[in-house]
Amino acid sequence: MSEARQQALEAWLTAGAGIGAPAERRIDTPISAVFLFRDKVLKLKKAVDFGFLDFTTLDQRRWAVGRELDMNRETAPDVYRAAYAIVARDDGFALAPFETEGAIDYVLEMRRFDETAVLSECPERVDGALAEQLGRTISRFHIKARLGAAGGGAAGSRYVMDSNAGLMRGLADEVSGVLDPAAVERALAATEAAFASVETLLDQRLAGGFVRACHGDLHLGNIVLEGERPILFDRIEFNDKLIEIDVLYDLAFLLMDLDFRGRRGEANRAFNAWLDEAARGFGDALFTGLAALPLFLAIRAAVRCHVAGHNNAPDAARAYLAAAEAHLQPCAPQLIAVGGLSGSGKSTVSRALAPSLGGAPGAVVLRSDELRKRLWGCDPLTPLPPEAYGPGESERVYAEMRRLAGLCLAAGRSVILDAVHLKAEEQTAAEALARAHGVPFQGLWLEAPAEVLRERVGARTGDASDADISVLEGQLRLTAPETTWRRVQATTASDSLLRLITPEGGT
Question: What is the pTM of this model?
Fold first, then answer.
């Protein structure tokens, strides 16, 4: 297409594409021209070639537009509306059905949404509840996603690492001067060392079904909140090496982004929600694979580093480079067990402690209430039948909780066991687990007056715990074990309570 005709086409799109009022605004990205109207968006691919994508021919742009529509309808079906052919007419241009012969270009139509509701514009809206919802939404998407291979395993990580290295070194040369060469080389050396330590694991995960057709670009800028519901949009469509990736690497972009924005608590909540939900569709390798998370976080930070650097944001580029190096700093795992009667605040304390334990996004929280629901094949908020609490069931839950904790500790990830731990043998088994893995242990026993416990349990809504007042009364009738765990009066606000608790190796 000639330059004059291209300009005429873009002017026609700006004027309303013959179907409405003129565009209110135009946004240009490196690969697309986006025209925003009152109630819709038209997206035109640019005829560019960046190596990792090539839109220089009409057939390639047609393929990309059709694929973007198909892929994003999986996660945002009410946002991505249609794909059209653009045809030439004697009086200019017109939109036509996508399969029309003789098209001169193609355009994607989307429903316009509130741009201020994109989470990168309002990260403060990501509270604990939304982080929980995000983690579970992403996990359900991952479980259903088709298997892939192009960007998975060691070769897939190597592909992105090599690209990152070249682009970051380009930003550290004498001409650019955006990044400090020594800092770049330190980060790259640490990345290589981390990669070498998990190279075999990455291939095992590829063979084990953890490489799937993911989102590929899952940061806060590609998630919009509508009616308190997070919608994932703008999936990568143009390069299978960036789409068919490890599900944990896909999640890592969101975790890294939240952490970079100073929201590690929310990153940890999303991480643990994702784990609980993903454990329903994946096997034990889900937890074994956590050894690769620091590498995945560092690679994602490096991607944002060179993107920021090439978008004239040098301060952000340097901050992302520092984040990439920080994600690869060694962090010895530890085990904390939080016990206490129903209503004592175990989950509140566990969630508040978890972000400070180990590297980003913090510790895995294994909550007995959620695990019991998983073992019974139930959603976290679905009440279980009485037999789920019958003879031998609690022993089964605690044994599985400790088994999974062992997998996480072996993968280098700190763990918090969130369970009543009313029996002495449950406490000693937790301590023995830490000794078996050679990690520091701390047990916390939360206490509160009976009337406080009754008030808290009676006020519960939307929680995985099925414990009601009758369950609590049964616990109160039992004699609490003599414990060596640190007794903590859990009657103050959670932030005040946490200042009283300094886990070994914590902050």
Answer: 0.93
